[in-house]
Every structure is written in structure tokens, then in C-alpha cells.
Amino acid sequence: MAGGQPIQLPLGIKLRDEATFANYFHGPNDAVVAAVRDFADLQLAPQDSCLYLWGTEGSGRSHLLQAACHAVADTGGLAMYLPLDELAEESPALLDGMESVELLCLDQLDAVAGVSAWEEALFHLYNRLREQGGRLLIAAGAAPRALDIGLPDLVSRLGWGLVFQLQALDDQGKQEVLKLRAAQRGLQLSDEVARYILSRGARGMVELFAALERLDQASLQAQHRLTIPFVKREMGW
């Protein structure tokens, strides 16, 4: 994002509007969220030029990276979000010049781990960004040394900066996230109905959000509030 406007990549990658810090349920991750917020605040001097997040799928890694980009763009700064799982088949040459970005967010690092051309490009980008005074925010499913990265120098660089693990939410936390997302959609989701969705549906956050999206549409069409019988009927449970 540049001055609040998106920089266009070949694949037309865009940030999700709802992926903001205000919409992120902290749960057990208060310290991590605070660190990412500070890292994205261009008015604050960062403790290091690189911050690395890791955690299981559904822990909110992508949300936090996109929230950081939104925060920088809102202050007129220059930020870029790159989901490497969508770009792995592209040439790593697309990283050329990215050191000019004030905040560069690289998501799903796992997708290019073990690919020598990408590893070399990331290593040199890291060095250029550090020299330019930029900030690099990375997310992956495992800690740097646990990824299948073949370039030792890249592993060491990734471990130089701040490394945080995002803790997975327990059932109570997932329930609170569902209620937060429902409220943002103008839906009233009671504790009882939220618990029912958790007990009957898939338990991953991606699947839970998809279920909520489906229920939101059904509720609008039927002009019906979310009750257990309604959810049961619409979801086929």
C-alpha cells in the first residue's frame, strides 16, 4: 500500500478489509499483537529490522500481517503484503526493489522453503532491507530452524530478529472470535449458538469463518435471527 492506495502486483493481490488490529481477537497473544503493532508503527524505532511470527494454521498469522499493512497505509506509509503460497510459481525476481518498502510482509514462508532460487532472493532482500532501514514482517507455520530451508545463511538471518509464536485459541477463545465476527456483520450470536457451532462444525478458524459467512447470508435472506434450530437447518447438522 502506498499512501493508502494499493500497489498492483501481477496477480492483483489485495488486503482483506476486515483484517485490522481492531478485528483481531488477542486471546493468549496480547504480547505478540502488541509487538506487531509497535513494529508497524513507523513513528517508533523498531527493536530489530525483522519480526518473525509462527503458529499453526488458523492462529491469525495472515490477519496480523495484513493488519500491519493497513496500519502503515493509514498513516501514509509504504507497505506491501506478499502471500508466498500464491507467488511460489512466479520468479523470485518480483522481490527486486522491495527494499524500498517501509514495511514488507511476507506470508506463508513455508511455501518457498527448500526452493533455492527463492531462498537466495530472500537472503539478499533481507540484507538490502536491513541496509535501507526497512522493516520485514514474516509469517510461517514453524520457527525458522524448523522450516525446510536449505540455505544456512538465510536461517541465521531469520533468527537474528524478533521471533514470536502465536498460541492457538482454546474453545472459549474461538467462541469469542465467532461472536466478534458476527457482531461486525450486524449479527447477534449468543453463547449458546456459538457453542453449538463449535460442537457440530469443523473446528479450524477458516472453516468456522466460512460457516459464519454462510449463516450470515442465510439469515439475511430469511430475515431470521441465529438460533440453534435455524443453524441446524441451514448447515444440515
From TrEMBL:
Start and end residues of each Hda lid domain: 171-233
InterPro entries registered for this protein in UniProt: DnaA_dom (IPR013317), Hda (IPR017788), Hda_lid (IPR055199), P-loop_NTPase (IPR027417)
A GO biological process held by the record: negative regulation of DNA-templated DNA replication initiation
Domain annotation Chromosomal replication initiator protein DnaA ATPAse: ranges: 16-164
SUPFAM superfamilies per UniProt: P-loop containing nucleoside triphosphate hydrolases
Domain of life, per lineage: Bacteria
Name recorded for this polypeptide: DnaA regulatory inactivator Hda
Species this protein is from: Halopseudomonas sabulinigri
Taxonomy of the source species: Bacteria, Pseudomonadati, Pseudomonadota, Gammaproteobacteria, Pseudomonadales
Gene transcribed to yield this protein: hda
